[in-house]
Write a structure and sequence with these properties.
Mean pLDDT: 90
Low-confidence stretches: 1-13, 384-388
Number of helices: 17
Number of domains: 1
Strand content: 5-15%
CATH class: Mainly Alpha
Length: about 400
Amino acid sequence: MTELLDKPCLAGEDAGSVVRELRALAIRALARMYRPEQRLFAFRLHRVDGLDVLEGVSGRYTATVLLALAGETPETAAGILAGQDAGGVCTALIEGVQRSNDLGEVALTLWAARALQHPAAGSAFSRLRSMEPETASCPTVELAWSLSALAVDGASVGGEPLAGVIAERLLSSFNRRSRLFPHWPAGAGASLLRSHVTCFADLVYPIQALSHYHLASGHTQALDVARQCAERMCELQGPEGQWWWHYDARTGRVLERFPVYSVHQDAMAPMALFALQAACGQDHIQAIERSIRWLVDPPEADAPLVDTDSDVIWRKVARREPAKLARTLQAAASRVHPGLRAPGVNALLRPGRIDYESRPYHMGWILHAWPTDRVVQAFRGDRQPRQS
């Protein structure tokens, strides 16, 4: 695999081989990150003084992995979960979210429970409904997760009015001029300095959720908005396949490029674009191939993000800067005027620093984005991809 990962250009079967190796690496990494005594995944694996150390636990990340394992074989799930059953782990999560005030954790748990066809999924749904996501002051990402949880795998939502209300809130938040979603949806609070700043996750999860919702309901506006946002997202992709981090929700322009996160490259962008493709047939495989190519050989970094020796994919390539300085400067400058940017950032705060940590949700999203049959279909030899 080392020879493959050193290739500067990937296409067709080469890209498929990389994705298959990423799947295998994700499975091995998840087995390292699971804490069987707590039935939870760690918050992160972090390299400290040359040693890889597990830190904390996360219900959100556990739910994400369980969602992914719904598409894997029982043997794969048991290998990751130290012999435990995914349904049993999900039971513990469902019980835990009854006491949780974290809308994101509740939504992801419901999504996982429904994907696993867990008999107690209704309990997770009741908890979600009690948190009133249709009006809650929550980030766009959590609202999108809530919608995906209700429309998972194209399940009918005709009898569930909550899905329609959440979808309308997402749709009303969409900026048709910029073709982007804001970080905070309609009716939620946002700071004055950063109210115009949106991030890559704020594009990915609504595209995915609205695509699921269209499949479940036939809602044409949901599909139209998902398509527009996906098209703009791909237009803004970097020249080497980078998915940049911060955007101006008013204008649809890139606000700050770094960090570039590995999970965006190999998992989050693909899963959103594949959800859209399932909903309407629109093909963005060339953008997906470019994003994988960047992950394999990021031009800004001197060391690989895909660390096959350590069985890990490192989290991101960031600027060499103190305390998110570039993002703060660009947010402040663009607040004064949409066209204004802080000068000298690229020269003074150069990218190239690798964040030596990895989180379980990244590995989970890889498996969710790339089930085995999708890898075969996406990179089959006779495929003629459309222009993104």
